[in-house]
From TrEMBL:
Domain called Helicase C-terminal: residue spans: 466-640
Domain of life: Bacteria
Keyword Lipid metabolism among UniProt keywords: no
Swiss-Prot/TrEMBL catalytic activity: ATP + H2O = ADP + phosphate + H(+); Couples ATP hydrolysis with the unwinding of duplex DNA by translocating in the 3'-5' direction
Pfam families for this protein: DEAD, Helicase_C, PriA_3primeBD, PriA_C
Cofactor note: Binds 2 zinc ions per subunit.
Any one GO biological process: DNA replication initiation
Species assigned in the record: Acinetobacter kookii
Name of the protein in question: Replication restart protein PriA
Annotated InterPro entries: DEAD/DEAH_box_helicase_dom (IPR011545), Helicase_ATP-bd (IPR014001), Helicase_C-like (IPR001650), P-loop_NTPase (IPR027417), PriA (IPR005259), PriA_3primeBD (IPR041222), PriA_3primeBD_sf (IPR042115), PriA_C (IPR041236)
Assembly and binders: Component of the replication restart primosome.
Annotated PROSITE patterns: HELICASE_ATP_BIND_1, HELICASE_CTER, ZINC_FINGER_C2H2_1
Binding site for Zn(2+) 2: C454, C457, C473, C476
Record-annotated Helicase ATP-binding domain positions: 220-386
Length: 740
């Protein structure tokens, strides 16, 4: 039975989203004075259990709000902001996200704040300077080393030091505040300028072609209201130019534009295209920023100072007081979906945000997702087509090479080698694509067929030769020595089988000794700035062979590449995941799209053991859009997403039997509760059943009625969490993108 407050101390209360892995917000009391100052959307320091945490105020409660008897009411520790950091629209977006993805609300709210603010540091951290007031205060200090250390450092810098730098040097703000109370040091606020900076055109737009003009006009007609557009434009058809011209109009009205790109899409190349078109405040928000840079960029966005916000997935939760347009480029890209923890899909959240903000949103891609095509069919999205490559460029032709009959050298067919040689002799660039890092995916014994397997996973070890010879499991990260002989039969010939990029690099260098071979993958670009170096080289019209993984497939513009070679995508043709063909088709078209983007025509060679595979033939004889229409029909016939809504339960423990039994029991309960309105698949062992020593099982829930699916899952899921054995890990993935 809820009670109403009885003592005056309970009258002033706020509801707080506290960053803990729980599904509720929690109420705290505060004084009348604090209550007056408290703003919804501001931060507050609270104690929770034994922890001191930074939460966000979501509601100021009135005196008649019942008190939840399950929890003891506590007072807040301190209000941290005198104004809201998160506006009403972002608060609604976060609340909706927590409900839709059924994820703990306090943790979802954390997505909207940069690290420093999450840690409770002051909003004006970057402007706070600390300075010594009393140069002879040694006797005022406590014996604590913290105060003495802080005092010593500050005395070395009589002009003052920013709080940020002091924090980085291990001096805590609490220590500084203690010294401030003793009048030993003082804090001075430097002026920070958050006035909006007008944007000007730095470069004339290109003359749009007919398709581009039509697309631009259609979006501009929808300004100031919600409408979703799918910009379906072939690779190299000038989608970016369309974005830029639409942005120009929106910026003219003094509005902000949010541009989301895939994780890897935020290359210097993309950034410079926006910076060279517009003068003004463009900020970047991505995972590579350090905490101060991130706070600075976030504040520029949140105050309205920045006009263009260019970011990856998580930037969708940035508060923007003046948002006028959202652009999400390469919308098919899987990196928009967070694959752990709070598993949101930035594409879907962006659609909802545009709706809340009442502004248009453009999703762009040369290979739109089947999900987006379905929305077009349902009339929820307007499709805009770009059908010609901009300038003189034409679409490349794809040739298949049958690996079963081809003559090969080190896994590369002779005809492909000849074609590469021809291009290099003509001083053109070649791009070789292989989506597998390392030296070789398998190490096998030539005598007894033993294979090197990870002891913790159902997976082979990958052979790496750099920086030294070792075996590496790409699933759990474990590393082992390369055995000198077979552990099973003691035979001394262990052979690496199959190709990884590191091996292909060696092979290509041997085959084309007079040309540069540049490898672009996570192993070779992990150093800061290395990507910029590679990119500079690519922009010079020198003959080189570029070798890379998925990183090379995305959105890049390589004007001198005239040949693209795809060495092996066969695993994508055989996968059990119903989305695998969609992903493979997108990958082929995107990689192929890197060819012939300049004046010279491009060609694509694809090696395969399955030259008769229908997917390949559809892409070669017809095109991606034809493939998409066909896939859409198949999904509809099979009632697969997006024609039914899905949720995936992942279950992980030390025993597969335990997983199965537990899921089985709850599957039954859900079938009964929903009167079979929810279709339950499984439980089944996950495609990789054992990973890092633990067993994985899956269960998929499907329904044509999204609201009903979410309704039934809600209580059921909470129930499962309460009943699960403590060593079992359960996760819920709403609208899953991968069944692994
Ligand atoms: P997409 O993003 O669709 O792959 P891009 O926007 O990268 O295509 O455009 C490919 C190339 O075509 C770029 O070099 C771009 O400058 C050029 N381009 C785009 N639109 C036009 C146009 N209207 N006239 C001339 N060149 C254009
Ligand atoms: Zn052996
Ligand atoms: Zn492993």
């Amino acid at each position: 039975m809820p009670n109403t407050p009885s003592t005056p101390a309970d009258i002033y209360r706020i509801r707080v989203a506290v960053p803990v892995h729980l599904y509720d917000c929690f109420d705290y009391t505060l004084t009348a004075e604090q209550y007056r100052q408290a703003e919804v959307g501001a931060r507050v320091a609270v104690s929770f259990g034994r922890q001191n945490l930074v939460g966000i105020i979501v509601e100021k409660l009135t005196a008649d709000t019942p008190i939840d008897p399950r929890f003891k009411l506590k007072a807040i520790t301190e209000l941290l902001d005198d104004q809201a950091l998160l506006d009403q629209k972002i608060l609604s977006l976060l609340t909706w996200s927590a409900q839709y993805y059924q994820f703990p609300v306090g943790e979802v709210f954390q997505s909207a704040l940069p690290t420093f603010l999450r840690q409770g540091k002051p909003y004006n951290l970057l402007a706070r300077m600390w300075k010594v007031l009393d140069l002879h205060a040694e006797d005022k200090l406590t014996r604590s080393e913290k105060q003495q250390q802080a005092y010593k450092v500050l005395k070395l810098h009589p002009q003052g030091t920013t709080e940020n730098i002091l924090n980085l040097a291990g001096i805590e703000t609490a220590t500084l505040k203690a010294l401030e109370k003793k009048a030993v040091v003082q804090c001075i606020l430097e002026h920070q300028d958050f006035r909006p900076q007008p944007v000007t055109l730095a470069q004339m737009p290109l003359t749009a072609n007919e398709d581009q003009k039509k697309a631009i006009q259609q979006v501009l007609k929808a300004q100031k209201k919600y409408q979703a557009f799918l910009l379906d434009g072939l690779t190299g058809s000038g989608k970016t130019e369309v974005y830029l011209q639409i942005m120009q109009e929106v910026l003219k009205q003094g509005k902000q534009v949010l541009v989301l790109v895939p994780e890897i899409g935020l290359t210097p190349q993309t950034i410079s295209r926006f910076q060279s078109r517009f003068h003004g405040n463009i900020v970047l928000l991505h995972s590579g920023l350090n905490d101060s840079k991130r706070l600075q960029a976030w504040q520029a966005a949140q105050t309205g100072k920045a006009s263009i916000i260019l970011g990856t997935r998580s930037a969708i939760y940035t508060p923007l007081p003046n948002l006028g347009l959202i652009i999400l480029d390469e919308e098919h890209d899987l990196s928009f979906k967070q694959q752990e923890g709070f598993r949101y899909h930035a594409r879907d959240v962006a659609m909802y945000r545009a709706h809340l903000e009442n502004c248009p949103i453009i999703l762009g891609s040369a290979t739109p997702s089947i999900d987006s095509y379905a929305l077009v069919e349902m009339g929820k999205m307007t499709r805009l087509e770009l059908n010609q490559r901009a300038g003189a460029a034409v679409m490349p032709k794809i040739h298949l090479i049958d690996l079963k009959i081809a003559q090969k050298q080190n896994g590369i067919s002779q005809s492909l080698i000849d074609e590469i040689q021809k291009r290099l002799d003509r001083k053109e660039q070649v791009l070789v694509f292989l989506n597998r890092r390392g030296y070789a995916p398998v190490l096998i014994c030539e005598s007894c067929a033993w294979q090197a397997k990870c002891p913790h996973c159902d997976a082979n070890f990958t052979v790496h030769r750099q920086p030294y010879q070792h075996l590496h499991c790409h699933h759990c990260g474990s590393i082992h020595r390369l055995p000198e002989q077979c552990p099973q039969c003691n035979h001394s010939e262990l052979k690496p089988i199959g190709l990884g990029t590191a091996q292909v690099e060696e092979n290509l260098q041997q085959l084309f000794p007079h040309f540069d071979v540049i490898r672009v993958d996570r192993d070779s670009t992990s150093r800061v700035g290395s990507w910029q170096k590679i990119y500079d080289k690519i922009q010079k019209s020198e003959p080189v062979v570029l070798l890379g993984t998925q990183m090379l497939a995305k959105g890049h513009h390589f004007p001198y590449v005239t040949l693209v070679a795809i060495l092996d995508i066969d695993s994508g043709l055989l996968s059990v995941d119903f989305r695998a063909t969609e992903r493979t088709a997108q990958l082929i078209v995107q990689v192929a799209g890197r060819a012939g983007r300049g004046e010279r025509k491009g060609e694509v060679y694809l090696q395969t053991l399955r030259p008769d595979h229908p997917l390949l033939n559809t892409l070669i004889d017809k095109d991606y859009r034809h493939f998409a229409r066909q896939t859409l029909k198949e999904r509809q016939a099979a009632l697969l997403p997006p024609f039914r809504y899905a949720a995936l339960i992942r279950c992980e423990s030390k025993s597969q039997e335990q997983n199965q039994e537990f899921l089985q029991q709850h599957a039954q309960a859900l079938r009964q509760a929903s009167e079979n309105l929810i279709d339950v698949w499984g439980p089944i062992p996950a495609p990789m059943e054992r990973k890092a020593g633990r067993y994985q099982a899956h269960m998929v829930l499907l329904s044509q009625d999204r609201a009903r699916l979410h309704f039934y899952i809600r209580g059921w899921w909470q129930n499962m969490l309460h009943q699960k054995p403590s060593a079992m890990k359960l996760t819920l993935d709403i609208d899953p993108q991968e069944l692994s």
